[in-house]
Amino acid sequence: MKPNSLTFIAATSVLFTLAPTAAQAQEDAPASPGSPSIVVEGRKQEVREELKNLIEVEDDQLARFESEFCPKVIGFDPEWTPILEQLIRDNVVAVGMKVEPAPCKPTAVVIFSHDPQDLVKGLRQRMPGLFEGMPIPQLDRLTGEARGAYSWRAVDMRSRDGITLQPAGDIGGSPSQAKIVRNAAGSRLVSSVRYDIVNSYLVLDLERTPGMSLNQIAAFATMHLLLDLTERAPEVSRSTSILRLFSGDDPETLPPELSRFDRLTLEGLYRIRFNNVSASQQRSRMVKHISQNEAEE
Known about the structure:
Layout: H1 5-15, H2 36-54, E1 71-74, H3 81-94, E2 108-113, H4 116-126, H5 136-144, E3 149-159, E4 166-167, E5 179-180, E6 193-205, H6 214-226, H7 233-236, H8 260-270, H9 279-293
Parallel strand pairs: 1-2, 2-6
Antiparallel strand pairs: 3-6, 4-5
Helix pairs in contact: 2-9, 3-6, 8-9
């Protein structure tokens, strides 16, 4: 079934406003293989690998929203749309991110369609700016496979203080994507730039929503809107993760909201004050937060 033309028009009208901007080591005695410290370190390494599989790296950093988060839902039941938007807002605030008061210019859009693949292909053809910066092979993979959910994000390199960087222009007579960084910090611990998610897009198959609760859909959307997820995120995520919601799993077997690991992953990234550090440092902070809180209730 083709997506409702009114849905496409509504999506287009909104998306036209969303063009992407542009521990000290300790010398303790060797621990035995079964010691608690070995077990803990092994568990931390597992979590670190999970995060590597889930979240994209932008030039050795993990991108996140820094400001101006404003969710918008299109193509859903008008009665439930404001409730779904509010649930997304509540999730975002709960993990440490600020949300723009409504009404506001949408920066995170969720579109429901009876034919999401066709809709995304249409957006690619009619609004290519929405996919700016995405390599062609990645874009082909995004639109070339029928699935229940399609998501992508516009990520912009900015100064460590969030200032939009000016393009360097042509270098040696050839066009360049380089940007000018002023007042660069001479430090090995922090970077002079950071990577901001400036817009997030999520297209969902309306035909797969029966049996799903609004809380589940809002939690799924929250993960996709706040994290720069890898293409393989749904399939490599834990069996208890809400990321599996549109992958064919029975909604009744999945958590009614963000799973504990889902929530801690978001908190670990968004409750860090400064984000202009390496991906390794970011993951280490996230692993610490997850390992300290995962077993607690």
